[in-house]
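Margin note: ligand = adenosine-5'-triphosphate.
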Amino acid sequence: MTPRLSLRGVSRRFGSVAALDHVSLDVPPGEFLALLGGSGSGKSTLLRVVAGFEAPDAGAVELDGADLLALPPHRRPVNMMFQSYALFPHMSVAANIAYGLKREGRPRAEIARRLEEAVAMLGLAGLESRRPHALSGGQRQRVALARALVKRPRLLLLDEPLGALDANLRERTGFELRAIQRESGAAFIMVTHDQAEALALADRVAVMDRGRLVQVAPPREVYDRPATRFVAEFLGAANILPGTRRPDGALDCPGAGCTIRAADPLPEGAEAIALRPERIRIGARPGENSATGTVEEAAFRGESSLLLIRLSGGALLRVSHAEEDGVPPPRGSRVRVNWDAASVVPLLG
Ligand SMILES: Nc1ncnc2c1ncn2[C@@H]1O[C@H](COP(=O)(O)OP(=O)(O)OP(=O)(O)O)[C@@H](O)[C@H]1O
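Resulting structure:
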């Protein structure tokens, strides 16, 4: 199937900064892709190139097989929703939503019908005559989405769409966004700083670092099998244990004070492994990876406790201890920890 959006070798420099460095990406129809990366990694530049607000120095951008770069922004079947929402303050909700259709010169009856559809889809009935200042943050966000979706874009670009909402509303609105995306059938690309949000909402997560896409994969894979150390660190809370690869494919890890084995021999070039805190157990289990250490901190977090364990080699290990596994060892206790070979993720680069 032709991918809805296809980027091939897209680059964009600003002086000495490579905002986009040979980016290639396919987004199939109806996919919800989260673009995740630190500040300045190139996320907004990527959206701006697709929307047409920025021209790449090199590369190709196609939508449903047609060259997108040949079209000016307003002719592209792509819409962009900005973090600020950019609603017109002097216009009603209805006028804001219908604005783009009016500008396209659509017949009045069609505008009325599509406006009604968008209002229903976004749960905005009853608010049509209000001005943006008389709406809550969540309602404003839904008006901005309605305005973007009413034009039935094949691709919707969202730059930190939930950034202006408080934590509670953020979660609920995120789920709503997901439902709206399914209903609309459009492909969504959502920029976010927030890794939990990206993992929760997206079909695939694309992780950017310094203008490059370092991994594009389903949330579980990015989380469980980070391709690089950057991804493992960016997705938060993984233990990274550096070491020296042995000829038999195990890793001598001085910080852990042990040799670590993965399910398969570590590939050549592996200089570290990642280990999720929830994959580590307290106690000895024969035949598995194990190390000894001292509990330095124990923090109760509801369904689990976070333990910081100083291993005999000096590395500090984050361990998530589930409530159902009983009372965690107290601060100061000497413990043995173990983890399966299958939980060991080799890290390259
Ligand atoms: N118009 C511009 N002129 C000069 N440099 C720019 C311009 N636009 C972006 N850059 C630079 O390109 C790099 C990527 O910027 P971009 O805004 O795409 O990052 P981002 O990942 O969206 O960051 P943030 O999360 O902070 O919005 C940054 O180093 C930025 O300073």
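Residues 15 and 209 are 18 Å apart (CA to CA).
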